[in-house]
Amino acid sequence: MQSDSAECAFEALRTEMLGFIGRQARDEPSLAGFLGTVARELAAARFPADPGTPVRLPGCRHLEAALDMARRGPMAPLARAFAALEPALRWIRSEHYRAQLGDAYMENYCYTNILGFDALIPHDRVVAAFFVIGPGRHYPRHRHAAEEIYFPFGGDTLWGQDDRPPAPRDAGRPVHNPPWLMHEMITQGTPLFTFCLWVSEEPTRLARLA
Question: Coil, helix or strand for 4?
Fold first, then answer.
């Protein structure tokens, strides 16, 4: 994707992200402060002069099914805007998970940060990302200092928090993880595809598994 085309796609995605975040802040007043922080940083972000070389990882093979699912759900405009920019993005994964989760897990998950660490637009405290995990995988219990919200695009993923049994979450409904809350995700028959927001009071430190 040419840089000018990528910049146009980024601006379209930013518009959708800000619109989605704004609607969520109105619908979920208790999350408005967190969402406002993310929105301000996204609004201030500037497309880089050198966006870098796009990178795809093996986990991206689940992206087609994930996007097909997302385009049929309530977050379809955000999914379509993301799909237009995706060819210009760099996908990453938390490599320190490999020792505990194994190669098979690592080959079936990845994420791309629009804003944040190793991101299209670097930021050391705020992350706006898109996350994919293939079917039949367990992202085990973990926690971190940052506050985090997932917005699933659809599917049958089970979301666990503290010691409560993991349960499904409707597409577009927030999964809010306050700082240091233990949480996990279990994918079943469909991929997990989610919009993820993260705010840290200090420079980002990635999660450690329980």
Answer: helix
Identify the DSSP state of 92.
B
30-84 pLDDT, tens digit each? 999 999 999 999 999 999 999 999 999 999 999 999 999 999 999 999 999 999 9
Q: Which of 133, 110, 129 is nearest to 189 (CA)?
A: 133
- The burial class, CB within 10 Å (0-12 / 13-18 / 19+), for 54 is middle
Q: What is the DSSP letter of 171?
A: T
User: In a 3-state reduction of DSSP, which class is residue 186?
Assistant: strand
Q: What is the pTM of this model?
A: 0.94
Alpha-carbon torsion angle 4, 61, 144, 27, nearest 10:
70
Residue-level pLDDT at 205: 66
141 pLDDT above the threshold of 90? yes
CA triplet 21, 23, 26: central angle to 5 degrees?
Answer: 110
Could you give the C-alpha distances from 108 to 71, 76, 104, in angstroms and in order? Answer: 21, 23, 7
The end-to-end CA distance of the chain, in Å, is: 40
DSSP, residue by residue, 124-135: SSEEEEEEEE-S
Q: Report CA-CA distances (Å) from 103 to 93, 96, 106, 125, 178.
A: 12, 11, 5, 29, 29
Residue 189: the pLDDT is 97
User: Is the separation of the CB atoms in 55 and 88 below 8 Å?
Assistant: no
